[in-house]
């Protein structure tokens, strides 16, 4: 059955995914209008929802502020525009004139609808793209704008897509906020009337907000309820405007850039927005997250089927104090624990002995690595591990040979100060020569030092964002920077197909669907306190899967929070994602090393569930009782539960953990204790995890289905 059909009666386009429908049509004025987004519809049912165009009800209204597929600034529209253009004569308008459509079904199990339009007066064309697939309810949308005239056009706002919700009794917005070392704090807030703007003006996705939204009617919970969610595949400045209108409708529009930025379109030039993805689910926030996770693993990541290795990272152990001997000592201990990938963090190059100098000079420091990185890389490989290094290609310390040679390579505005953050400036990746330089040294580094893994960091946000000497440079750089960043990553991966890359921006400052399409995992946060991580990981998991969520076990008291929690608790928190170790292993006792080796081995037994299974969040990590994350095999054969509890309060009820995602009627065996449980009891009555008393107790329970014959 085709995924995209058009009604011969009403002209309604019906997009069909496994469990949902999305419908739109071109109305009598030529504008693309929303019809439906939600549970599956037949073509006839979708036709019935297509309301005819209605003239404004009075002279103070215009076209409805919510309900168009890409509201433009033009005519009698007064909501936030997705598309706002300014022509050479200063006028700002766009009038939809349909110019054709096509459906591309050349890729199996995937169809793409393209609706083409042009302005009725100025030669500017707009194409709306919709992609649906047979194995996901996620709908991808983007817009292509082309200046067909011979005068420049400015795109003051060029969003990827607008999304319309059905009329609901109330609206609630879920989203995350944060800051450095406190990313992805989850909020579920009643949507206020008016416009709510979620944005980053920092040139990166940012720690402070993340470009996804979930909307529901205020009654959804983790297991029940309808949720409409969206996510933007973009790693630069972005803006999403969520709107609740006086007449009780809600919708949102989102795309690249923040207010005040514009995308210039020279004659003949085309601009393709990044993808905005939308997903309707009926099954609460848990179902929404699982659908996003599956989509990211299947359609965003390139190597999600691989088992991600247990890594060691030197940052918290050594800081900038990096040399061959101390790294080797750590690597030997890491190998004993079962670590499979050893990563040398910041400090291995140039004059980098602190964050004040050396950034940009990407040759191994001769005083600390007299023969380069190769001896360490070879030793790590001999120990049976892969070898990774930290890089920060987009940055430069003013105290560096690179900056002395190329002071014009940074973002700057002539005659104004160059504000430093962390003693560094941003290299202007929008410049082709800068991007080519980065690609050149990165490919050499990877080849010459047998590097298997890069941790690609980005440690400051934009400032004095200028590109002197380039026409429209100050406007173009916001998008071209990101396109060139993507280009370097794409070229690098094409040149070194075995290379794996971790995205990092002072922790989780650049995690989004755009960067995840070019990397393999993400450093979640510089905050490695296991207790804080419970909340950070809960927020991260709303859209992004455990398959990319890098988490380290570090020393106590924690460097940032000074909190001390048991080693097993720290491991169990990190085992909920991609397990890594970041403590100073030379200071761990033999008992700690033995316990750690056991926990690494345990992780290897269950990581296929964490990395490839379905995730269920159970309970509130900061509540009174026990909370958990559970990962279940999609075929119902296995599950792992990571359970956590803060200090117990005397007299608090012991509420068993009701597990999820287990097929009813079968039994499971606890692989550690041999205890056999009925799945129905586990899901309907719960599992008494029996956490030990004391602060910050945790447990890992691995359940395997008992074969029917032995029941
Ligand atoms: C920020 C990262 O998030 C840290 O893990 C570490 O790599 C430092 N940068 C190094 O400067």
Explain how this protein is built.
- It is a single chain.
- It is built from 13 helices and 36 strands.
- The chain is an alpha+beta fold.
- The strands form six sheets. Strands 6, 7, 8, 9, 11, 12, 14, 15, 19 and 20 form a ten-stranded antiparallel beta sheet that branches. Strands 21-22-23-26-27-28-29-30 form an eight-stranded parallel beta barrel, surrounded by five helices.
- Strand 7 and strand 8 form a beta hairpin.
- The longest helix has 23 residues, at 473-495.
- The radius of gyration is 26 Å and the shape is globular.
- It starts with a strand and ends in a 6-residue tail after the last strand.
- 54% of the residues are buried.
- The mean pLDDT is 97.
- It binds (2R,3S,4R,5S)-2-(hydroxymethyl)piperidine-3,4,5-triol.
- (2R,3S,4R,5S)-2-(hydroxymethyl)piperidine-3,4,5-triol (DGJ) binds at residues 315, 345-346, 390, 457, 459, 504, 506-507, 523, 526.
Based on Cα principal axes, name the global outline.
globular
What ligands does this structure carry? Answer: (2R,3S,4R,5S)-2-(hydroxymethyl)piperidine-3,4,5-triol
| Helical content band | 10-25%
The rounded distance between the terminal residues' Cα atoms is: 42 Å
Give the amount of beta strand, in percent.
25-35%
Counting copies of identical and different chains, the oligomeric state is single chain
| Structural class label | alpha+beta
Q: Can you count the helices?
A: 13
Low-pLDDT runs = none
| Average predicted confidence as pLDDT | 97
Number of strands: 36
Main sheet: strands, sense, barrel: 10 strands, antiparallel
Give the radius of gyration.
26 Å
